[in-house]
Amino acid sequence: MSHAASHNDAYGVFASQFSLGPQGGKTPALTVAIKDCLDIEGMVTRCGSRALADAAPAKSHADVVANLLASGCRIVGKTRMHELAYGMTGINTFEGTPVNPRYPDRIPGGSSSGSAAAVAASLVDFAIGTDTGGSIRQPAICCGVIGFKPTFGRVSRKGALPAQSSLDCVGPFARSLPMIERAMSAIDSGFWPETFDGQLRIGRLRLDDRIETPMAEAMLSVDSDKDGVIEDIELPLLNAAFKAGMTIIARETLLANAALMERPELLGDDVRKRLEGARSVTDADVAEAEDIRARFTADVDGLFERFDVLLTPALPLPPPRLFEAGEPAKVLTLTHYLRPFNLSGHPALVLPAATSDGLPSGIQLLGPKGADARLIAMARRLIETNPNFHIEE
């Protein structure tokens, strides 16, 4: 393996010896890395698991891969991930844990760890991940890049594992908003960048004691422009929606991986224990979670009758250091502000920032369903008027 390949591997891109798409040319193709829960024809989709290492190679490209190639992008590797996309740390004892390029003593986040790290290390122009409970947005903040979860169902999941999910979305990581737009245009033929010139009405989540004070700085520093307004909002079902998301992902992940539980010794300890715990989820638990989904979604939809965009913190506490990743108190609440919006299905964008003492932090912006391009345009407006976000142009 060449030195360059070893460098790529450290930051989560494996199988980087292959390249799909155009080579050379007067205008270099955009380079992309793909999370290894998405099929690439002729390659095994391992999902970061020893249990799938000997699976049959994919017979065809996932739709998102086919769309990238059709748009002229060049795929340069697949990325490491938290096993079976069922974890938030990105730590993987089978494949190795990607180094967090900007905060190397801290977790890269999960489950799309390698995709976030590859973008943060400038190995690719953008990367593709998946987000079932914050799995794009959380590693994006951990690694200091932008992450975007589209409206649920907007980007095709054909060729993704798990095959069935009521929460999961395919989306991009990038270092700039224009690159997020180019990535979305490549994976979704119906996406067209927009501008936003009107009055920006921002609904800012009122905080409680779940968030550490430095992690709130980025959100509280956001100002509207001279014509805009910011009002504090309540989401009374936010905590219940977080728990409901945990319930539904447990049930759906167990159903998707039931066959793998026949050989539990091939699974990492953390994932095996989570799948075993998922067996305790009852039909009544799922029914209650679905009721919360409907009510929480209605609450969020109702806020967009008054506001253009909703603003929340990205994380309630800093990403833990690698040696702290086994401590539940350091990990379980990381997606407190992220997971509820997988349940509701709204598009969500995270912008990285740093706390006053230099730790990774950021904000989350949410838009109405289907208003993905407008949400990115509104994020650009906020960046123009708020110097705290050091985002590439």
TrEMBL record:
<dbReference type="InterPro" id="IPR018247">
    <property type="entry name" value="EF_Hand_1_Ca_BS"/>
</dbReference>
<protein>
    <recommendedName>
        <fullName>Indoleacetamide hydrolase</fullName>
    </recommendedName>
</protein>
<dbReference type="InterPro" id="IPR036928">
    <property type="entry name" value="AS_sf"/>
</dbReference>
<feature type="domain" description="Amidase">
    <location>
        <begin position="31"/>
        <end position="375"/>
    </location>
</feature>
<dbReference type="InterPro" id="IPR023631">
    <property type="entry name" value="Amidase_dom"/>
</dbReference>
<dbReference type="InterPro" id="IPR020556">
    <property type="entry name" value="Amidase_CS"/>
</dbReference>
<comment type="function">
    <text>Hydrolyzes indole-3-acetamide (IAM) into indole-3-acetic acid (IAA).</text>
</comment>
<comment type="similarity">
    <text>Belongs to the amidase family.</text>
</comment>
<dbReference type="InterPro" id="IPR000120">
    <property type="entry name" value="Amidase"/>
</dbReference>
<dbReference type="Pfam" id="PF01425">
    <property type="entry name" value="Amidase"/>
</dbReference>
